[in-house]
Amino acid sequence: MYKVLVMDGISDMGIQLLYDAPDVEVEKKNGLTEDELVAIIPQYDALLVRSATKVTDRIMGAGDKLKVVGRAGVGVDNIDLEAATKRGIVVINAPDGNTIATCELTFAMMMSVARMIPQAYKKTVGGEWDRKTFVGVELRNKVLGVLGMGRIGSEVARRAKAFGMTVLGYDPFLTEERAEKLGVKLGTVNEICAQADFITVHTPLTSETRHMISRPQFELMKKGARIINCARGGIIDEMALVEAIDTGIVAGAAFDVFEQEPPTADHPFLNNPRIIVTPHLGASTVEAQENVAIDVSEEVLHILRDEPFKNAVNMPPVPANVLNKIQPYFGLGVKLGEFLGQTVEGAISEITVSFSGDLIDTDTSPLTRHIVKGVLSHQLEGVNIVNAMHLAKTRGVNIVVQTSAASQTFTNLITLTLKTKSGQRTAAGTLLAGYGERIVQIDQFPVDFAPAGHLLLISHNDKPGIIGKVGTLLGSNDVNIATMQVGRKTFGGSAIMVLTTDKETPKDVIKQLEQLPELIAVAELTL
Ligand SMILES: NC(=O)c1ccc[n+]([C@@H]2O[C@H](COP(=O)([O-])OP(=O)(O)OC[C@H]3O[C@@H](n4cnc5c(N)ncnc54)[C@H](O)[C@@H]3O)[C@@H](O)[C@H]2O)c1
Ligand SMILES: O=C(O)CC[C@@H](O)C(=O)O
What we know:
binds nicotinamide-adenine-dinucleotide, 22 strands, ACT_dom, NAD binding, Rossmann fold, binds (2R)-2-hydroxypentanedioic acid, amino-acid biosynthesis, 7-stranded parallel β-sheet, alpha/beta, NAD, EC 1.1.1.95
């Protein structure tokens, strides 16, 4: 008999499947502390949670029989994935079940912010009959900017069209064909900020999306813009928003999520008459809670019964013989993917991986998953080696895997090419005895550096003095260069420079570098 512990008030209707299973015993509990969970978890084979329970390393460490942790929802920020993977515990989520609920909350928020419904309600029930203060705006003929056009963003865009809005969208994975199908015009974040009357965000919270709307973006906005965040706290800079309201740029905002949840009593959103708030209710509908609970229950049963499953967000076991051979390359594969993934702009349409040397006569698919994970990790939340291929496929990214008989120079070589609308970029990496992971080629240029830390990738014209100029500019801005690699094909032609710096290069220093006449492009990467 498998024992399943269900926390956080997950829908009973949704887990009926588990109650009905002859080989499962279900127990429901709420509000346990970490210590209490650590004490009881050894009895259970599966743990189901929403977002309230933090599934920590300690809890999983105590879960002697624990095979699976199920998250009834999308975000797995409350589960220590690394700890689960380390212990062979499968973590599953339910990515589709709350899309409509969150999309509809976004619309409710957009209409509420347009018509100030919560503020009007508060005054009316307080005994005031104030019809002058609450003159709102219509959605029809307005421009809606949608940042993040995945499951929820696409549904929001569809509904906005029905309201007669023009929709501008931005998503690094949105191709023109898909945008056209959705009736969405593509734009950059800054273009959208400058043109939209309403802006809604639907991205994960990543290092790239944290504060993607901050003071510079607010400064671009039309007077009277309205902002909605039903995705994750931190995508919009909360303090910059309050400032933009105070200076009259933003007319209103609606937030379901906060940088810190719950927000403290003195949070500036809580007493601002232009900001309406809800306590992370995006997924809180009867239907969504049932959907996510059904999805997660089905998967938990598959995993407990050793049947195939699909929504794992962490690592599956790899056969020992394959693992022994290819495990040493996993780190290189991820780094190579992360490196090249950060150098391309726009939607990736094809990822080509070519293995040569020692890597040709083994099953490289787990290694390919690591590489694809690395490529996608800057754009997508929760991407890992279990779901990387699936995510690439659902976003229309074609994956080509090739082997080439031998590498003339290296005993092993992984060559990665990413194709986008604006062209393609290639990088190759090798595991070098005594030196570890090295990137040895970028496009047509031979290089040799360790893919780690803060990097500056500079394309430039091979002119005397350029290295000195870059070095002086960085040095005078207190950016210390740890290593430097220069690659060129011909004297005086185009060339590439890869610098490792001891700290992140500030954005204004990048701008100064870009102004050097010999420089073609500068990219700042962190690995
Ligand atoms: N408020 C709630 O209760 C609630 C409920 C469900 C989901 N969510 C959150 O909503 C967000 C969207 O969920 P989803 O199911 O649509 O996810 P999704 O993965 O389907 O879509 C996210 C999209 O963001 C895009 N993206 C990544 N980086 C970007 C960037 N820098 N700029 C623009 N776009 C970028 C991705 O390409 C992807 O298409 C997530 O943060 C999720 O955790 C909140
Ligand atoms: O369980 C919840 O209510 C949170 C839902 C949401 O944030 C998610 O990521 O799915």
